[in-house]
Amino acid sequence: MDQSPFDRVILGDIVLPDAVLPGGYVGIRGEAIAAIGQGAPPPAGAVADYRGKLVLPGLVDGHMHTSSSTGWPGIEGASMSAAAGGVTTCVDMPYDVPQPVTDAGVLRAKVGVVEGTSHVDMALYGTIAKTGGVAAIEGLAEGGVCSFKLSTYEYDAVRFPRIDHPTMLAAFREIAKTGLMCAIHNEDQELVQRLTEEAKAAGRTDPIMHARTRPPLAESMADLEIFEMALETGCHVHIAHSSLARGFELAELFRRQGAKASGEACIQYLCMTEEDLVRLEGFGKCNPPFRSAAEVERVWGAVAAGQVAYVSTDHAPWPRERKVYTGDIFAPGAGLTGMQSFAPLMFSLLEERGLPVTLMASLCAERPARFHGLAPKKGAIRIGADADLLVMERGDFTFDEATIQDRPDARWSPYHGRRMKARVAATWLRGSLIWDGEAVLARPGQGRFVPRQHRETYLGEG
């Protein structure tokens, strides 16, 4: 009988949120991390040798949509992209086709689909119906949602409604009792609608008009509304995607005034510009839109200042035909694929700016896990945590959308052809290899639902 103290040892340069351990190891017992060290590894039943490569915590994508276009069947394919991209925990949005996650019954049904079809672990957002939904908030919290999501802009009256101010205020008061975070889609509806109507009337439906009809002011107006309500109610209110440095500055300003306020940057706002929208047409359309190159630099300044809660993808795998521009930029669906490219792209952006890889471990794993109440189980290489690991091989690579692990019509990417400074060589989920650099080894249902671990609020301190 094997008496080895560890089931498996992973060798490589171990990336922690604040340090890198060259020539290190991670010892795994069962599904959890049981040892972290450097030098000669301890005896184990098996050894995975990634010496010369980086071993990071599996990424936690705090914002993605598996089911906004295809419904719950989209969980299976999107979770394959996650496995291939080193994302071991997805935090999935609630705006599903045909029924959003608005009560505990719908939540239970979605959890069943996650545990039957997902290749990676998954935490879930909850939301409320446009009217009469506030009473369901506590039941959703008891059911294990990690956070809530509401919107100041309406895409669909049932699936993705605008919540009016009185209802949002009531919802914030109720969510505050749970201690959970409430993320907001932050665009001013009246301004965007009027500008869109005027653009169409003038015959301006070319790609740049997507950005012009959703100007920075539409974001900052919504940010001010939600943060004032955060101050009033004590709810932790979070910008779901700030394309502007001003969003992070406003969150910090309101925190100083006593509000529980935060905001995340999606990775596209760290690298994509309006010129990319013109180049990519419908395949570069997302909300909020890409901004100027100068704004990208300002967002990086917010990262450097420690104002950004975490970095996510807002992965939304629309079928390819729904993204094709045929003369009207307002017609294609809004959203990008980004999960399989997440790790290589974030690593490349940091390398290009001379920033440490520890920022990736912090902003793309530990901090999203903490904001969503999934720590200490998820988000970091620490003793007792799930043995979720991402192995990065440094080199000169090119991202190819044809390699995306998902249904065929989701194999498109705004990052197709981009040079990358690393690739995902392996992904481990709870001590099991689920991506070997070439193929997804996980089976549907190997992923699990991860309920929120506690009701403590985290705002980025400590």
How would you sum up this structure, described in words?
The chain has 462 residues and is an alpha/beta fold. 31% of the residues lie in helices and 22% in strands. The strands form 3 sheets. Strands 3-2-1-4-14-15-16 form a 7-stranded mixed beta sheet. It has a 7-stranded parallel beta sheet with strand order 5-6-7-8-9-10-11. It starts with 7 loop residues before the first strand and ends in a 27-residue tail after the last strand. The model has no long low-confidence stretch (mean pLDDT 97).
Comma- or semicolon-separated keywords:
alpha/beta, 462 residues, 31% helix, seven-stranded parallel beta sheet, single chain, seven-stranded mixed beta sheet
Per-chain topology:
Elements: E1 8-15, E2 20-29, E3 32-38, E4 47-57, E5 59-64, H1 74-84, E6 87-92, H2 104-117, E7 121-126, H3 137-143, E8 147-151, H4 165-178, E9 181-185, H5 189-201, H6 208-212, H7 216-233, E10 236-239, H8 245-256, E11 261-263, E12 265-266, H9 274-280, H10 293-304, E13 311-312, H11 339-352, H12 358-371, E14 389-398, E15 419-429, E16 432-435
Parallel strand pairs: 1-4, 5-6, 6-7, 7-8, 8-9, 9-10, 10-11, 12-13
Antiparallel strand pairs: 1-2, 2-3, 4-14, 14-15, 15-16
Helix pairs in contact: 7-8, 8-10
